[in-house]
Amino acid sequence: MGKAGNIFVVSLSVADLVVAIYPYPLILSAIFHNGWTMGNVHCQISGFLMGLSVIGSIFNITAIAINRYCYICHSLRYEKLFNLKNTCCYLCLTWILTVVAIVPNFFVGSLQYDPRIYSCTFAQTVSTSYTITVVVVHFIVPLSIVTFCYLRIWILVIQVKHRVRQDCKQKLRAADIRNFLTMFVVFVLFAVCWGPLNFIGLAVSINPSKVQPHIPEWLFVLSYFMAYFNSCLNGVIYGLLNQNFRKEYKRILLTLRTPRLLFVDVSKGGTEGMKSKPSPAVTNNNNQAEIHL
Q: Which residues form the G-protein coupled receptors family 1 profile domain (predicted)?
């Protein structure tokens, strides 16, 4: 994906880690004590960070989709659109929009402890209009943009496969397609994990009196824990679909078993770096095969 594109992947991993650092330990504490014992301040902070992680994830997934769309479908303009400076600006904008999207919760009072899921989170029934806005702006609109971007990429890949656009001078590497497939799987799993919870919230908001009594508690709890589970899936996806990640995971595991290997790797890397010239970054499985359009 190149250095600029990888910035959004790192940002997505940060969004996933946010919930592991603070909200999840508090949820475990609430489960062990069968109730919230940390006070309202920690409840508000936990709910804020949970929302920051969720919305940050979907906004970063949207940014990745746009980045991949420009890289594959508009490659001639990609370097200008996504140079390092512009990419950093896009990243800052992504997180600014994320924070702006979370702040209204404090004015609406929608960050509350829910005993059914042992966590402080967004209460869907506090404000009907606000819940509808959250689902539309923070879920449906981003997913629509991502769907459009990946649909256009799929069309281009199909055209390449069937040699529909032989007159085009663009080149598409096999590694680019693999990177696209990895992020597409990330998007699909996010939609699957978070879709039920968002659609339940939307249905309840549209007609609370009729819909809410008919939603079983187990379905609500299952939808929440499906959403929580999504935060740990991305690292697994990278490990399954990306050879570079698999190699690095193996190195980390070996290092944990034998710490001295860490110093050997660092020493070896430094020696090789002095003896050899730097080479261009290679993505995914280091496969440089190209598909000509």
A: 1-238
